[in-house]
Structures are given as structure tokens and as C-alpha cells.
Amino acid sequence: MPSETVENYLKAVFTLCGESPAGEAGMSRIAAMVGVTTGTATSMVKKLAGAKLARYERFGGVRLTAKGERAALDILRRHRLIETFLVQTLKLDWTAVHAEAERLEHAVSPVVLEALDAHLNHPRLDPHGDPIPGADGKTREPRGVPLSSLAQGDRFRVVRITNQHADFLSFVAAHALKPGAPGVVVAVDPIAQSIAVQADAHAPVTMAITAASRIVCESIHR
Amino acid sequence: MPSETVENYLKAVFTLCGESPAGEAGMSRIAAMVGVTTGTATSMVKKLAGAKLARYERFGGVRLTAKGERAALDILRRHRLIETFLVQTLKLDWTAVHAEAERLEHAVSPVVLEALDAHLNHPRLDPHGDPIPGADGKTREPRGVPLSSLAQGDRFRVVRITNQHADFLSFVAAHALKPGAPGVVVAVDPIAQSIAVQADAHAPVTMAITAASRIVCESIHR
DNA sequence: TCTTGAAGTTTGAGTACTCAAACTTAGTCG
DNA sequence: CGACTAAGTTTGAGTACTCAAACTTCAAGA
Predict the structure, then answer these.
(1) Under an 8 A CB cutoff, do B119 and A92 touch?
(2) Does A115 sit within 8 Å of B104, measured CB to CB?
(3) Contact predicate A65/A72, CB 8 Å
């Protein structure tokens, strides 16, 4: 059973691989995500490789093995199920549960996890719209495109927020852009690299394209 | 904020002090409860003393300071609230939740804890009948006497089980002696050091006086 | 009083993780 | 090409916790 520390590295490598086009994670990004120096990350990645959880060679990128990926999906399942529980059952604030789940995910046993899953009625999405992997590790990615790819006048519905920072989530919530919310693209300014959007019955807000890329939407054709 | 390890020592010292007539905890018992060697316990107790959480002198007993006691009660609150949650909300088995709570108690933040407390409607007893300390650390001990102190023919109601071992709890459950259950003392044999009891509408069972001392009851006068 | 055994303490070493700082590698730009 | 830089690696040391084993203390009993 991997240690809490190893689990955190696994999660970091997994998400970074998912975000990078090459499907590889760089050392400095891993270090930043886990919150350690790059030296520490290097030695821990070696450890992951030693445990056959990751593939890695000196000065090359890091990627998970099938075994490592399976472990990462298990952690993700725990994390997202806990987030769902905290919001749905305990009524905690949507923007605060990520940090809480981060601590709890290492302490829930399989028994508690499955009981939680049953209690919540086997949810498939967490409060941020992220898919919850099944007990078998299978995940169904919700389809959608980044808000940043839409054009002026496009109508959309938010399906997912892919940046868990509390500040960003508060921003999203403040402008009524939570998963499920419908809205419209008011303007796109390629020079300023910004996009203005408006959730139904809310004031419009302008944000950078980079920020909008973290809000995943499906377009509404009417 | 005390580490997970320190929290475990605190809990051990607290319970042992509560159980001992002198109100002191011995090193070997602390070590056994935490699951380390006595040498390790000695050095950790020194650390507790250094942090003003415990009072201790070489070859003397260990006891908690007011600060240490406050911390221990906080951990106990977390532990018992979590146990209550696991049984009441997640419908987990009464006999299995102790171990689960042991892992989770170190990972719940004050915010989650209070949300849990509200969700459960501020319970005052956990599934074993143990009192749940308030957020202020105040505890109301349920009154009762050990089953072992009753005499033949005495009718009683179980109020609390003070041995959390899964085996013991299963035994208790198998004979319908869970907290709240009414019963009667069938026989007491001082020579064999045993006591025979019978829960209403169940078969009688004979157990050692030592075992019966872990079942706390209130007698029923009718 | 002397011995003995149980309980407690100390020491030295090991594991898991961390950092700072010196160093290597690989790619980029003048 | 050669120098610079960003990224990655290595080293040496430190923290928190652990054990095994040698040692000390204390309280009895012979």
C-alpha cells in the first residue's frame, strides 16, 4: 500500500500527464504541485519507478505505468467521492472542499469508500463536474470544449471547472458559472486575449483566455 | 498542531490515566497501546513533556497537563463523532467502525467536524455508548455500573461498552447486549469468576467477570 | 542485605521524507 | 560554435519516527 506521500506524487504525475500534450510530466511541475523542491521530486520519482509505478529516465519526462495509473485513478475516485459527500451531505462550500478532500482521501478505507458511494447513490460527477472513476478504475470523461474556444454570440452550458484553486472557484461561483449554468459569449478580444461572458440573468464578466480555458462547456444549439 | 503520532500518544495516555486508579499511565502500557517498543514510548513521552502536553519524570508515571487533556478530548470528540457518522449515516457495522475512525480522526478539519456534528444533530453518545465531548471539551460521563457488579436476579439496561476490540464487540452484539438492551443477571459464580446474563428474548450467556466489567449498565427497578 | 526480575531508559542505527546548494545536461541564441 | 539558461540531478545534512539491545532503577522476597 503506497504511503500518503507516494499517493500525492502519483496524483500529481497523473494530472500533469493528462494536461500535457506529450502525456509526460516535467520534474519542476511535479515538484511545484506536490510542494517540494525539484531535488526531492527527482528522488521520489526514482522511488516510483523502483516500485514500477512510473517510467522515467534521467533528463527525460515522467509517465505512469499501467499499475501507477490504476493507483492514481483509485486516489482520484476517493478524492472526488469525498468532495461530493462534503458538498451534498455536509453542505460545505463548493469552493472549500478540495483542500478538505486532499487530507481525507488518504484515510478512507475501501469499506468506507464503497459505503460512501452507496450513500451518495453512485454519483458520476463531483461538484466541479469532474468524472468519478468507477471502483474498477474506468472513467467516462464528460465531453465539452473550453469556454476559451467559443465565439461571440455562442450560447453554452458549463459542464466542468478544471482548476481547483479556491480563488478561482470563488470567482466562478460569483459570476454564476458553476457546472450546469447556461450563458452566452458576449465578446472575444484576441488582441487583449480576453473573453467576455454572461451567465443567464447575471452581469457579464471579462476574463483572460487562459482563465476561460479552465471552464469546460458544451454549446447549446437552439 | 500535533502530528498524527503525537495525537495517538495523547489518546493512549488519556485513556490509560482514566483507567488507572492513580490516574497515571505506565510506559509499557502506553507502548502497548500505541504499538511501539517501550524505548520509543519513553522518548515520545519526553517530547510530549517538552511540548507541555504531559507531565513526567524519570521512572515516574505519566499524566497529561491541562493543555494535553484538552487536546486529547478534541481527538476523542473527532473519533466518536466519526464512529457515530459511520454507523448512522453510512450504515457500517457497529463492530468495525473503531478501526476506521482511528484512521479518519487525524484527517478531519474543524470545519468538517462541525458540519458532521450538525448533520448528526449534535449526538451526545457514540454507538458504543461513549460520551462525545463538546466542542469546548466538556464531557458528560453517562452514569452506570459495571455489569460485573450486579447480583443474581438484577435487571439492567446496557448503557456502554468500554472495550473497542472488534472481537469483543461482536461477542456483545451476538448476545444482544448492545447499548440500550435490557437484560437480567441469571447467575453469579464467584469461584469460577463468571457471570451469566440474559438479554430479553435471547439465550443466556456466561462470561468472565473481567469481560463483564467492560459492559456498563444501569439497573432497572421495577 | 543481597539478589532478582520487571519496568523504564539510553544508545546507535535505520527508514522515509525533506531541503539547500553544488553540479550536469540539453537546448537556444548571438 | 560557444556561452548562457532553464531544467534536472546529486550530495550532504536534518527532522520525525522507529527498533534492538545494552543498561539502570526500583521494589520485593529469600
Answers:
(1) no
(2) no
(3) no
Among all strands, which nt has the closest C1' to A60 (CA)? D8
Q: Which residue has the cell 515522467?
A: A62
Chain A residues 18-77, Cβ below 7 A from strand D? 26-29, 38-39, 42-43, 45-46, 56, 58-61
Is the model's pLDDT at B222 over the cut of 70?
no
Report the mean per-residue pLDDT for chain B. 92
Q: CB B129: neighbour CB atoms within 10 A?
A: 18
At A63, the amino acid letter reads: R
Does residue B129 sit in helix, strand or coil? coil
> Average of pLDDT values for B22-48?
94
- The mean pLDDT of B74-78, rounded to a whole number, is 96
Enumerate chain B positions whose Cβ falls within 8 A of a Cβ in A.
86, 89-92, 96, 100, 103-104, 106-109, 111-112, 115-116, 119
The tens digit of pLDDT for each residue in A12-35 reads 999 999 988 888 899 999 999 999
- Give every residue of chain A whose pLDDT is below 70, as ranges: 222
Each residue's pLDDT tens digit, B131-183? 999 999 899 888 889 999 898 999 999 999 998 888 999 999 999 999 999 99
Query: In terms of DSSP bridges, do strands B182-189 and B194-199 run parallel, antiparallel, or are they unpaired?
Result: antiparallel
Say if CB B16 and CB B30 are below 8 A apart. Answer: yes
Contacts of A175 (CB under 8 A, 6+ apart): A197, A199, A202, A203, A205
d(CA B38, CA B42): 6
pTM of the model: 0.89
Is A41:A34 a contact under the CB 8 Å cutoff? yes
CB pair distance less than 8 Å for A108 and B104: yes
End-to-end CA distance of chain A: 51
